[in-house]
Design brief:
Blueprint (H helix, E strand, L loop, with lengths): L10 E9 L3 H4 L2 H14 L9 E4 L6 E7 L2 E8 L4 E8 L8 H9 L3 E9 L24
Helix pairs in contact: 2-3
Protein backbone atom coordinates (compact mmCIF):
# COMPACT_ATOMS: atom_id res chain seq x y z
CA UNK A 1 0.00 0.00 0.00
CA UNK A 2 1.29 3.45 -0.89
CA UNK A 3 1.79 6.03 1.84
CA UNK A 4 -0.66 8.96 1.80
CA UNK A 5 0.26 11.81 -0.52
CA UNK A 6 1.45 14.93 1.26
CA UNK A 7 0.25 18.19 -0.20
CA UNK A 8 3.30 20.17 -1.26
CA UNK A 9 3.85 23.34 -3.22
CA UNK A 10 6.39 22.59 -5.94
CA UNK A 11 6.78 26.15 -7.09
CA UNK A 12 5.31 28.87 -9.21
CA UNK A 13 5.26 29.19 -12.98
CA UNK A 14 4.82 32.45 -14.85
CA UNK A 15 3.47 32.09 -18.40
CA UNK A 16 3.95 35.46 -20.05
CA UNK A 17 2.91 36.72 -23.49
CA UNK A 18 4.31 40.06 -24.66
CA UNK A 19 2.30 41.46 -27.58
CA UNK A 20 2.91 44.40 -29.91
CA UNK A 21 6.69 44.09 -29.57
CA UNK A 22 9.21 45.65 -31.97
CA UNK A 23 10.09 42.87 -34.48
CA UNK A 24 13.77 43.88 -34.68
CA UNK A 25 14.10 43.58 -30.90
CA UNK A 26 12.56 40.09 -31.05
CA UNK A 27 15.29 39.02 -33.51
CA UNK A 28 18.12 40.25 -31.27
CA UNK A 29 19.90 37.71 -29.09
CA UNK A 30 21.67 40.62 -27.36
CA UNK A 31 18.38 42.27 -26.36
CA UNK A 32 17.03 38.97 -25.04
CA UNK A 33 20.26 38.28 -23.12
CA UNK A 34 19.85 41.65 -21.38
CA UNK A 35 16.23 40.75 -20.54
CA UNK A 36 17.35 37.42 -19.06
CA UNK A 37 20.13 39.15 -17.09
CA UNK A 38 17.63 41.65 -15.69
CA UNK A 39 15.18 38.92 -14.66
CA UNK A 40 17.89 36.84 -13.01
CA UNK A 41 19.22 39.86 -11.12
CA UNK A 42 15.87 41.30 -10.05
CA UNK A 43 14.32 37.96 -9.04
CA UNK A 44 17.46 36.78 -7.20
CA UNK A 45 17.81 33.70 -9.43
CA UNK A 46 20.91 31.52 -9.73
CA UNK A 47 22.02 30.23 -13.14
CA UNK A 48 23.00 26.56 -13.14
CA UNK A 49 24.73 26.77 -16.55
CA UNK A 50 25.23 29.20 -19.40
CA UNK A 51 22.10 30.20 -21.30
CA UNK A 52 21.49 28.47 -24.63
CA UNK A 53 20.38 30.49 -27.65
CA UNK A 54 19.13 29.64 -31.12
CA UNK A 55 18.79 32.53 -33.55
CA UNK A 56 16.71 31.42 -36.50
CA UNK A 57 17.65 32.65 -39.98
CA UNK A 58 16.07 35.48 -41.92
CA UNK A 59 13.06 37.20 -40.43
CA UNK A 60 12.47 34.47 -37.81
CA UNK A 61 12.95 34.88 -34.08
CA UNK A 62 15.07 33.59 -31.22
CA UNK A 63 14.67 30.83 -28.65
CA UNK A 64 16.51 31.02 -25.34
CA UNK A 65 16.79 28.66 -22.37
CA UNK A 66 18.53 29.30 -19.08
CA UNK A 67 18.64 26.44 -16.60
CA UNK A 68 18.46 27.82 -13.08
CA UNK A 69 19.13 26.27 -9.71
CA UNK A 70 15.51 27.26 -9.04
CA UNK A 71 14.34 25.64 -12.36
CA UNK A 72 14.27 27.41 -15.76
CA UNK A 73 13.66 30.55 -17.82
CA UNK A 74 12.70 30.35 -21.52
CA UNK A 75 11.75 32.70 -24.32
CA UNK A 76 10.44 32.09 -27.83
CA UNK A 77 10.00 35.12 -30.09
CA UNK A 78 7.76 35.51 -33.10
CA UNK A 79 8.72 38.74 -34.90
CA UNK A 80 6.19 38.06 -37.64
CA UNK A 81 3.48 38.30 -34.95
CA UNK A 82 5.25 40.94 -32.79
CA UNK A 83 5.04 38.48 -29.89
CA UNK A 84 7.33 36.94 -27.28
CA UNK A 85 6.38 33.92 -25.16
CA UNK A 86 8.24 33.71 -21.84
CA UNK A 87 8.11 30.97 -19.25
CA UNK A 88 9.70 31.16 -15.80
CA UNK A 89 9.41 28.31 -13.31
CA UNK A 90 10.76 28.65 -9.77
CA UNK A 91 10.60 26.11 -6.98
CA UNK A 92 10.76 28.84 -4.32
CA UNK A 93 8.92 32.12 -3.80
CA UNK A 94 10.29 35.11 -5.72
CA UNK A 95 9.77 38.84 -5.39
CA UNK A 96 7.16 40.43 -7.68
CA UNK A 97 8.41 41.61 -11.07
CA UNK A 98 6.67 44.24 -13.18
CA UNK A 99 6.38 42.25 -16.41
CA UNK A 100 4.46 44.97 -18.27
CA UNK A 101 7.03 47.66 -17.49
CA UNK A 102 10.04 45.40 -18.09
CA UNK A 103 8.79 44.00 -21.40
CA UNK A 104 7.67 47.42 -22.64
CA UNK A 105 11.16 48.72 -21.86
CA UNK A 106 13.15 45.80 -23.34
CA UNK A 107 10.90 44.64 -26.21
CA UNK A 108 8.54 47.54 -26.87
CA UNK A 109 5.53 45.45 -25.77
CA UNK A 110 2.21 47.29 -25.90
CA UNK A 111 0.30 44.57 -24.01
CA UNK A 112 1.42 41.85 -21.60
CA UNK A 113 -0.52 38.84 -20.33
CA UNK A 114 0.80 37.11 -17.19
CA UNK A 115 -0.64 33.84 -15.94
CA UNK A 116 0.66 32.63 -12.58
CA UNK A 117 0.36 28.91 -11.91
CA UNK A 118 0.97 27.29 -8.56
CA UNK A 119 2.57 23.90 -9.20
CA UNK A 120 2.81 20.62 -7.31
CA UNK A 121 0.26 18.25 -5.90
CA UNK A 122 -0.85 20.95 -3.47
CA UNK A 123 -2.21 22.79 -6.51
CA UNK A 124 -4.78 20.03 -7.07
CA UNK A 125 -7.04 21.68 -4.51
CA UNK A 126 -7.18 24.73 -6.81
CA UNK A 127 -7.55 22.71 -10.03
CA UNK A 128 -10.67 22.10 -12.05
CA UNK A 129 -9.26 18.84 -13.34
CA UNK A 130 -11.78 16.11 -14.19
CA UNK A 131 -9.60 13.58 -12.36
CA UNK A 132 -10.61 12.48 -8.91
CA UNK A 133 -8.51 14.38 -6.42
CA UNK A 134 -6.80 11.25 -5.11
CA UNK A 135 -5.78 9.47 -8.34
CA UNK A 136 -5.45 9.81 -12.13
CA UNK A 137 -7.96 8.17 -14.45
CA UNK A 138 -7.59 4.39 -14.67
CA UNK A 139 -6.60 4.51 -18.34
CA UNK A 140 -3.64 6.87 -17.83
CA UNK A 141 -0.02 5.91 -17.40
CA UNK A 142 1.75 7.75 -14.62
CA UNK A 143 5.37 7.38 -13.66
Amino acid sequence: MRPPISLIAAGTEWVVDAIGCEPDLLRSEEVLRHLFDELVRDLLLTPAAAALWKVFPGEAGVTGLWMLQESHLTVHTFPEHATAAINLYCCAERPEWDWARGLAHRLGATAVSVRVLKRGNGAIAESRSPWPRNRPPSNSRVG
